[in-house]
Specification:
about 180 residues; two-stranded antiparallel sheet; 2 strands; elongated
């Protein structure tokens, strides 16, 4: 009888790629909302650049939470929504500080305050913040459900003996010829 095998490395990369595509789809919608609200506020109000940016990010955070919870990470642990929301908001706010910090330095530090410059530096800040958000959301907020194989170092049984994962990994790199008893 064998226990479940750990997913091969190629399958884990495919899973990460699928997750990144879903994250990108939701994030893309969030980017559109973020830029749309930002440019709408900048063109129709007298709000300062960073204040308009903060409002736009807050609207995008709400949009993104809904997308991440019900699309990207819908198969993740649903245990504590309160914990999840608190961490999501915390990491989103850190991302907002990163994004707004880049925009602030460009606007008030260097005086780059045209509409084009605002959007370019908003985009750069958003790119840096996105890397942080992807890592923090998948690591801390929307945690993967544990799998039985993830908790076991023994992944296979052969001839009544347990074969550790390390031995199976070594066999994948250097195949071992089966041991044949010597003839007498």
């Amino acid at each position: 009888m064998s226990t479940p095998k750990a997913a091969p490395l190629s399958e884990r990369f495919r899973g990460l790629a699928r997750e990144a595509v879903k994250f990108g789809a939701v994030g893309g919608l969030g980017v559109l909302v973020n830029f749309g609200v930002f440019n709408l506020l900048r063109s129709t109000t007298d709000l300062q650049t960073v204040r308009a940016n903060v409002i736009a990010i807050v609207v995008a955070i709400v949009t993104n939470y809904i997308g991440f919870r019900y699309f990207t990470y819908r198969d993740r642990d649903l245990g504590s929504r309160r914990r999840e929301m608190i961490l999501f908001i915390l990491f989103s706010l850190i991302g907002m500080v990163i994004e707004s910090g880049v925009l602030y330095v460009a606007t008030y530090g260097f005086g780059w305050d045209s509409s084009l410059q605002n959007n370019v530096f908003k985009f750069l800040g958003m790119a840096v913040a996105t890397v942080f958000r992807f890592w923090s959301y998948r690591t801390w907020v929307f945690q993967a459900l544990p799998t039985p194989a993830a908790h076991s170092l023994v992944v296979e049984q052969r001839d009544g003996h347990e074969v550790p994962a390390v031995a199976l990994a070594a066999e994948a790199v250097v195949p071992v010829a089966p041991v044949v008893p010597a003839a007498k």
